[in-house]
Amino acid sequence: MKSPLVRLALKRMYRRKGRRQGQATGLTWPLHQRLMEAAGDRTIDDRNRALLAVAYDAMLRRSELVSLQVSDLMVELQGDGSLLVRRSKTDCEGVGEIVWVGADTVRLVWAWLDRAGIAEGMLFRSVGKGGRVGERLHPCQVPRIFKAMARAAGLPETVVKGLSGHSARVGAAQDMVAADIELPAILHAGRWKCTGMVSRYGERLLARRSWPRCRGGPEPRLSGAGSVPRRPSS
Fold this sequence. Notes:
This protein has helices spanning 4-17, 29-38, 43-58, 62-67, 103-116, 141-152, 157-161, 167-178, 183-190, 196-201, 203-209, and strands at 73-75, 81-85, 97-101, 125-127, 133-136. By secondary structure, it is mainly α. The protein has a single domain, classed as Intergrase catalytic core (hpI Integrase, Chain A, Orthogonal Bundle). Strands 1-2-3 form a three-stranded antiparallel sheet. Strands 4-5 form a two-stranded antiparallel sheet. The longest helix is centred in the first third of the chain and has 16 residues, at 43-58.
């Protein structure tokens, strides 16, 4: 618990500088698809496609992604599947949580595992020169992978720099808001305990919806989910 002096100092700092936090660029579905389509046919590209697909479908944090094991994937008869997240930010005791992944994502995961010759152990691993598959992937590699994929897809550097290890999670939440998915379903999918983060991720879309229709005239122009910000012409 912070002392009164610390709380007072923080309050003064917030008044001077503000306390709004930066937000990672969301890898919404259109951007997700551009990254997928631009990936090559190397072993590392198979890994990257599977990693991005799982991160988006399951809305995983980077630490959760790199902790997955092959045995955590359960494939259903219809082709989609589920993953066991053994421990997370909201599950410190390790009870475990089940998340969903689509059939296309399952196929990408199997393609990566088959090519890498992985049958057990860590699901996502490092890939060195010549396609040599190493051991587990470090969490700090996740944002680097997303940024490398974005550069390969030709996205502006301003977008690339905004990507983080949580960008797929942010983008999936933004897509759900854009699709009018009910808030309880979004909270359940992302395993959030409160609405604060979802509101932050979808605040621009929510602001657009709150525009009073009674004012008349066109609605405020706002780039849709997944669009790439453009620099205004001089």
